[in-house]
Amino acid sequence: MIKKRTISVCTLFVLACVLLLCAGCSKEEQDGTESKDGTGIYYTNKSCTKLIKKDKKINTDMNSQLGAEELLAQMEKVEKSSEYKTAIPDNIVISNVTVSNNIAYVDFSIGYKKIEPNEDVICKAAIVYTLTQLKGVGYVEFTVSGRPIIDTDGKLIGALNRDSFLFGELPME
């Protein structure tokens, strides 16, 4: 009788320890891939006025150069029947992306100069929010045909991060 009770108490103790260990686990899986609740690709609504995050399982620990290339390719893939669209306008081509020293350098084709101001902000914000999920990418710097982007005041925009976009000015869904 005592032997059975000891086994039952030990079994309950082991189960309780396992449950406590599991409860303390983070949402990040052991292979370095965050849960889909935490990562995603950023798109825009049909009228290009809001960012929409679509949850995707992204390995944030992958090589940042390959990761940036893959994420930008995924940003351009949207089903025609969906309620959202790519935040990268149709007439824009991303000529190159290079990651170095915690910065992803994204070079647009010359067509970038023809996009509307609201498309410009949404496009840059979507790229920044998507790429900065990667380990090794804290900032994104944009160029057009290899030349830095200048704002309406004639100042260089420079490297942007998530804090560069104010939520009051950047509509999110």
Description:
It is built from three helices and eight strands, in the order H-E-E-H-E-E-E-H-E-E-E. The N and C termini lie far apart (61 Å). The protein has helices at 2-23, 64-75, 117-131; strands at residues 40-45, 51-55, 84-85, 94-100, 103-108, 139-144, 147-148, 159-160. With 173 residues, it is of the alpha+beta class. The strands form two sheets. Strands 4, 5, 6, 7 and 8 form a five-stranded mixed sheet that branches. A three-stranded antiparallel sheet has the order 2-1-3. The chain is 28% helix and 21% strand.
Secondary-structure blueprint:
Layout: H1 2-23, E1 40-45, E2 51-55, H2 64-75, E3 84-85, E4 94-100, E5 103-108, H3 117-131, E6 139-144, E7 147-148, E8 159-160
Parallel strand pairs: 5-6
Antiparallel strand pairs: 1-2, 1-3, 4-5, 6-7, 6-8
Helix-residue proportion: 25-40%
Number of strands: 8
What's the number of helices?
Answer: 3
Shape estimate: globular
Order of secondary-structure elements: HEEHEEEHEEE
Q: Give the termini separation.
A: 61 Å
Which consecutive residue ranges, at least 5 long each, have pLDDT under 50? 5-37
* Average pLDDT score: 78
Beta-strand percentage? 15-25%
